[in-house]
Write a structure and sequence with these properties.
The protein has 6 helices and 13 strands. It has a 5-stranded antiparallel β-sheet. Strands 3-8-5-6 form a 4-stranded antiparallel β-sheet. It has a 4-stranded antiparallel β-sheet with strand order 10-11-13-12. The longest helix is centred in the middle third of the chain and has 27 residues, at 117-143. β10 and β11 (166-168) form a beta hairpin. By secondary structure, it is α+β, with helices and mostly antiparallel strands.
């Protein structure tokens, strides 16, 4: 359930890019608890959510409850802009942790785009980037096997450490990985166990550490 934000707290939007600050200033701030559903796939869209703190997950699901994660969004991101054409929501959005958003109505958003060319260009670039990511995701699903998709995910999230190892800072559960690469949790668990047994990765405080380059195929 959303909760009103206390006015006495420091404004988290101050650390965001200027064009995002301007957009957030047009909205009303709301807090969401972990697992709260902000947007439901198929609903009519009437607002854009600017993330000020916390993290959101955009996903699609089927009638059997199976889910595929489309993207993760943190501070400075905004979600819901795909409904600016008046269409229904194309995906659901859920809070992954306590999250603060600024909610901007569709009408206000359209007026802001008209008045601020800099923001309009930033929005266009964002939509182009999203289209590229969607193309890459479709290519991955069509041309790579499950291991290939797992390898891409781990390597894209890993950050090189001083000792030469690479650390996936985000604590990814096997279910979260499965939702992102489009397979079962059991398949992810089996592959991760095999890679750990082979000395390619290890788990340190629930974080994945890549000890050496992952093999091209498994």
């Amino acid at each position: 359930m959303p909760q009103s934000t206390a006015a006495s707290r420091p404004d988290p939007a101050a650390a965001l890019p200027l064009h995002v600050q301007k957009l957030a200033a047009l909205g009303v701030q709301r807090r969401y608890r972990t697992h709260s559903l902000l947007i439901e796939e198929g609903d009519e869209g009437s607002a854009v959510y600017v993330v000020l703190s916390g993290r959101l997950r955009a996903f699609v699901s089927d009638s059997r409850g199976r889910e595929v994660t489309l993207a993760l969004h943190g501070p400075g991101d905004y979600v819901g802009e795909m409904s600016l054409d008046g269409g229904r929501r194309s995906a659901s959005v859920q809070a992954m942790e306590p999250t603060l958003c600024a909610i901007v109505t569709r009408e206000t958003m359209l007026h802001h785009i008209e008045k601020d060319p800099e923001f309009a260009m930033a929005l266009i670039v964002r939509l182009i980037r999203r289209a590229r990511l969607a193309t890459e995701s479709a290519r991955s699903m069509a041309l790579l096997d499950v291991y290939g998709r797992l390898k891409n995910l781990l390597e894209s999230r890993a950050i090189t450490q001083p000792d030469g190892t690479r650390l996936v800072a985000e604590r990814l559960t096997h279910q979260a990985i499965a939702s992102e690469i489009g397979c079962s949790r059991e398949m992810v668990s089996r592959l991760m166990k095999d890679l750990e047994s082979g000395g390619y990765l290890s788990l340190v405080q629930r974080q994945v550490v890549l000890a050496r380059d992952l093999p091209a195929r498994w």
